[in-house]
């Protein structure tokens, strides 16, 4: 534990979690526990808990989550009340909340008071309806990104990252990504030592970069019967090698023609396109989590040349490897 954590000795940051009927439970409780655990560690170190955590709702009574569990809530605070961080949850009830003029008006007013605003999962729809994402980069659950972009064309939706920060506005992907976002917020406030202790205590992956994919390419290539699972595992261990069609077909125990047909039916991709995606994913991890130079990364991932890797990144991610590292490196 640090002897001098990065917050004023007597300063307490009010963190409000906006909820509504049919809210996604983990959107609230996941981030809430991150902040609560940070309080516990600071208290154990002899400091004053840095966060005052409040779950609020328009009703100011109990809110029933989509799972059926009831949450005790406080009424929406008055406009002038102090707040440091406003967290907006998502869930089945977000449509009704985003269409409620009382909630929208409150969120807009609260955003003017808060130091920072964040959404978890489909809570991004509520922020977008409030106009707080206009002209900003944002993310939501991968299955709702296209809909968010369609409804709110002023929002620069990024479908891949697990969380995004644009100025004082943060947004995160589906459900558990809210925990990653909350860890990033605590790290910004209190530094890496405390947030590492929190992550270890909660048994979560520490400092998962915001630019990490919402789900892996290997997972997206899996079919119900996963007939090519062993092949994908083998490919992952040989990405730096030359992997032409004859080699892949032989590894799968099929003729080239049969392999190409069955693979496309199972994954929706040609073998070459699948290899490209797997290589891009491996390169992304190295760019964001290591200091290896790009020249070593393209060789390790089997691109053949730096230009080939650059073209693959532009085609699949619309950014160059250098831009990706600048934006998402840990």
Topology of helices and strands:
Blueprint: E1 13-18, H1 25-44, E2 51-57, E3 62-64, E4 70-72, E5 74-75, E6 85-88, H2 94-98, H3 101-113, E7 116-119, H4 123-129, E8 137-138, H5 145-151, E9 156-157, E10 163-166, E11 169-172, H6 177-190, H7 192-202, H8 217-220, H9 229-237, H10 245-252, H11 256-267, H12 271-289, H13 294-300, H14 306-317, H15 321-328
Parallel strand pairs: 1-2, 1-6, 2-5, 6-7, 7-11, 8-9
Antiparallel strand pairs: 3-4, 10-11
Offer a concise description of the structure.
With 330 residues, this protein is α/β, with parallel strands linked by helices.
What report would you give on this structure?
By secondary structure, the protein is an alpha/beta fold. Helices cover 47% and strands 12% of the residues. It is built from 15 helices and 11 strands. It has helices at residues 25-44, 94-98, 101-113, 123-129, 145-151, 177-190, 192-202, 217-220, 229-237, 245-252, 256-267, 271-289, 294-300, 306-317, 321-328, and strands spanning 13-18, 51-57, 62-64, 70-72, 74-75, 85-88, 116-119, 137-138, 156-157, 163-166, 169-172. A 7-stranded mixed beta sheet has the order 5-2-1-6-7-11-10, sandwiched between helices. Strand 8, helix 5 (145-151) and strand 9 form a beta-alpha-beta unit. Helix 6 (177-190) runs antiparallel to helix 7 (192-202) and helix 10 (245-252) packs across helix 11. Mean pLDDT is 88; it is low at 1-9.
């Amino acid at each position: 534990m640090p002897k001098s954590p990065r917050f004023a000795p007597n300063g307490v940051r009010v963190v409000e979690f906006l909820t509504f009927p049919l809210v996604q439970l983990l959107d609230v409780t996941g981030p809430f526990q991150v902040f609560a655990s940070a309080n516990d560690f600071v208290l154990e170190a002899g400091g004053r808990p840095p966060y005052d955590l409040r779950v609020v709702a328009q009703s100011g009574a109990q809110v029933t989550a989509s799972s059926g569990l009831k949450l005790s809530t406080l009424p929406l605070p008055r406009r002038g009340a102090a707040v440091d961080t406003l967290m907006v949850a998502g869930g089945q009830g977000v449509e009704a909340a985003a269409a409620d003029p009382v909630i929208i008006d409150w969120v807009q007013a609260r955003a003017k008071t808060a130091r920072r605003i964040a959404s978890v999962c489909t809570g991004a729809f509520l922020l977008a309806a409030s106009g707080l994402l206009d002209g900003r980069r944002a993310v939501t659950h991968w299955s709702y990104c296209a809909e968010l972009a369609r409804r709110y064309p002023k929002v620069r939706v990024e479908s891949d990252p697990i969380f995004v920060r644009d100025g004082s506005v943060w947004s995160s992907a589906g459900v558990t990504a809210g925990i990653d976002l909350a860890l990033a917020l605590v790290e910004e406030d209190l530094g890496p030592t405390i947030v590492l202790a929190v992550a270890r205590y909660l048994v979560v992956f520490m400092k998962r970069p915001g630019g990490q994919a919402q789900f892996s390419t290997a997972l997206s290539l899996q079919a119900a019967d996963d007939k090519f699972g062993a092949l994908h595992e083998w490919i992952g261990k040989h990405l730096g090698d030359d992997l032409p069609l004859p080699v892949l077909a032989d590894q799968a125990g099929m003729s080239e023609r049969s392999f190409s047909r069955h693979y496309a039916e199972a994954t929706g991709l040609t073998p070459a396109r699948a290899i490209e995606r797997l290589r891009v994913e491996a390169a992304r991890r190295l760019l964001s989590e290591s200091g290896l130079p790009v020249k070593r990364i393209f060789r390790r991932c089997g691109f053949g040349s730096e230009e080939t890797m650059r073209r693959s990144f532009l085609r699949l991610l619309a950014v160059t490897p250098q831009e990706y590292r600048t934006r998402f490196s840990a």
